[in-house]
Amino acid sequence: MNLTKMYSTIDTHVDGEAFRIVTHSPIGLTSTNIVENQNKLNQSFTQVKEILLNEPRGHRGMNGCLTLPSNHSDFGLLFFTHNGSATFKIGALIATTVSLIETGNLEVKPNGKYKIETYLGVYQLEVEFNRGTVLRVLIENKDTEKLVQDNWVVIDGGRRYRIFSLPEEIPAIEMDYLTTLKRWGKDKVNELNLNHEKYDGIILVENKNLDEYRTMTFENDGHILRSPGIDSTMALLIQKDLLNITNYNIFGNSISAKKQHNSLEIELKNKVFITSVSEFVLDEDDPLRNGFIIK
């Protein structure tokens, strides 16, 4: 054994989407400017990011978060993800805030309002917290728009999603049809990539009732999002021009959203779950020390 580095994390999931919050690592960031720090994290620390995200310690669905002090907010948050996944994740804001509260690293505020500084600006979350349990999380979306052509929706002025209705040849978004759904998603991803479209995901939609839908989201490398998807839920709410929506995934988990005063208020039906508090080590003699990904 030749152990040279140690990493500490809090692992969580938000309705099935996994987040790894780094609490100790060799990542050194000295700037007080969060945009500069995010750019440095994007361009450097490749080995650290691979160790924390890749198998055997992680997997393709793992998302990384790194907290920093902030002069303007309760804390700053940086993001790192696999190629093919949107760097910014609203779920990361929620996962980190709730995890820091539940582990005693963030003060419980009487009004439940927290500000998080990111490279896209400051976001505010309202957390309903009672007797050690987070009951509800509300977040206001900044800038979402529907593009008239071809069912495109843009979240936060940047993340682009293409929405498709469930084709007749697929009976439902259910586990019984997973192979067919995966094939459909792979074909659509290849089609958009061949056309050089810039996008973050494809959302396949099955209408259950008036304001209830089941969706499957494919990221731009074909990976299937395990959560119903906060972005997907907001995109569907805007595209369908609804006031309220409940979005289910293939496993039956759901996210509810409602629109108020020309903004989006996102309410999680299920709370964030902490799955582990972990320490990882790097053995320089390990031939797979940087990990690997099998898609």
From TrEMBL:
Q: What is this protein called?
A: Proline racemase
Q: What does the sequence similarity comment in the record state about its family?
A: Belongs to the proline racemase family.
Recorded hits in PANTHER family, A to Z, give: TRANS-3-HYDROXY-L-PROLINE DEHYDRATASE (PTHR33442:SF1)
- Tell me one Pfam family matched here: Pro_racemase
| Stored InterPro entries | Pro_racemase_fam
The protein's GO terms of the molecular function aspect are:
4-hydroxyproline epimerase activity
